[in-house]
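Table S2 (continued). Query chain:
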Amino acid sequence: MPVETIRWSPQDGLEIIDQTLLPVVFKHVRLESLGDIWEAIKMLRIRGAPAIGVCAAYGVLVGIREKGPASVAETVRAVHECADYLATSRPTAVNLFWALGRMRRVADQHKDDAEPAALLSALEGEAEAICAEDKRLCRAIGEHGAALIHDGDGVLTHCNAGGLATSDYGTALAVMFRAHELGRRFRVYADETRPLLQGARLTTWELMQAAIDVTLICDNTAAQVMREGKVQLVVVGADRIAANGDTANKVGTYGVAVLAKAHGIPFYVAAPYSTFDR
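Corresponding output:
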């Protein structure tokens, strides 16, 4: 079943699954400093637009603990400094800026507090709300999207948009997880997704954990399985969606979209509203 990518507790701090080790090693690692979190996002230990946003929100809390501000003013300044730093880690994921913007607003709303305690509590509450919201939205995507998959369908996906790319359930893969839970029988064709092989290393692993029938294919095999009538729909995630619906995702997604159009196959993008660039 879907995995819990991010763990937070006030006592133990922030832990993530190190996705650079999958599928050979499944390991949670603790991120103990702001630098650890920046490096984890930059080096794709944590990846996927929603997951990056959630991780960054918790990262602000880790950074504040590290800085140890003594006053409300110092805490507000620390929030903005941490957010500025984390924003440089992965500029392509709009969820990163969305989550950091929410943390900044909470800090600014409490700048006139008498003591830092209320501000710190509000910041932790906001980070936890961002995480909970992501989980709820991913479940909703699964509920709405599952109706697209029917018994006997072939579903093609590119890159990884499962639980590993979010805080829990995924976006594109949420559609497949929910359809499977409802008893639908279908096959997923997962592009390997060069050069970092997120499809081969992560998507196939997640689907196998959920006992969903998955076939790993080379990126340049997508056209062939479409031509042979093995694919009835394509579902992918997104790194960023413009206000007009234009979508940016992992390299190769555009080619899959062109192939789907050429073969008359529906192409769906599954993403939460936090991925829209407003």
